[in-house]
Design brief:
Order of helices and strands: EEHHEEHEEEEEEHEEHEH
Structural class: alpha+beta
Largest sheet: 8 strands, mixed
Distance between the termini: 25 Å
CATH topology: Nucleoside Triphosphate Pyrophosphohydrolase
CATH class: Alpha Beta
Shape: globular
Helix content: 25-40%
Radius of gyration: 17 Å
CATH superfamily: Nucleoside Triphosphate Pyrophosphohydrolase
Number of strands: 13
Strand content: 25-35%
């Protein structure tokens, strides 16, 4: 991953991840530690579900595209990875939808208490999972829209998507962003998202957060979101140029 810029937001044209049906080597080598970590999580946060998600290896940058290999892995592996961030060829890459209102705000969400990221504020996002596999590749763009629809109720059309993608990396964490310019104001979008949170079957989201400057997100926004907000709002118009 050394050729992928670190600790800064940069532009990207695409992400090309090929699925490998075998177990991720890092998961195989660390199975005992992963299982021990999950056993502790089950006691402290019994509501968590050890489902299947996607981890990656061999990430590299070539011609404004990130390439790599992806493997199905248990959610327990991700929790152990995030807790340790080892110096190994393993990465957690995911996509985020940056929802922008017609009056210049960014719409974020605050995670509910009974989640792994309780209280954190960030753009709609989620781990890549088997539903994001298409013809042997990982559909990051599809995941971005799926997570936004599930978490906010908004159906983000391709027409509202800005190009290029944006990316931020720190060690093995790789955040991919697509900005979406909406026609509605922040008040309208906030109400639509709030209605979805209130009536939705899943209770993973606690609230919608309207951001007009980075500090509006509060102290629980993770580093990758703080970097993205600084990049976006420092650009003035939000173009990132």
């Amino acid at each position: 991953m050394a050729d992928i810029p670190e600790a800064r937001v940069f532009e990207l044209d695409s992400v090309r991840l090929d699925l490998d049906g075998t177990e991720h080597p890092w998961v195989s080598e660390n199975r005992a530690a992963i299982e021990a970590h999950w056993a502790r999580e089950e006691i402290e946060r019994p509501w968590l579900f050890n489902g299947t998600m996607i981890l990656h290896r061999g990430l590299r940058m070539k011609n404004r595209a990130i390439h790599g290999v992806s493997h199905r892995a248990p959610y327990a592996a991700l929790l152990h990875l995030v807790a340790t961030w080892p110096r190994a060829d393993v990465a957690h890459l995911f996509g985020s939808a940056i929802i922008l209102s017609s009056d210049g705000a960014m719409l974020l969400i605050r995670m509910a208490k009974r989640t792994a990221n309780s209280g954190k504020v960030y753009a709609p996002a989620g781990s890549l999972d088997p539903s994001d596999i298409s013809d042997g590749r990982i559909d990051v763009e599809g995941s971005i829209r799926r997570e936004a629809r599930e978490e906010t109720g908004l159906d983000l059309s391709r027409e509202s998507a800005e190009t290029p993608l944006l990316c931020w990396r720190q060690a093995g964490l790789v955040a991919i962003f697509r900005r979406f310019q909406m026609d509605e104001t922040a008040d309208v979008l906030s109400q639509r998202i709030s209605d979805h949170i209130r009536t939705g079957a899943e209770k993973e989201i606690e609230d919608v957060v309207v951001v007009r400057r980075p500090e509006d997100a509060g102290p629980t926004a993770p580093a990758y979101m703080q970097a993205l907000m600084a990049y976006h709002f420092d650009a003035g118009s939000g173009s990132g140029d």
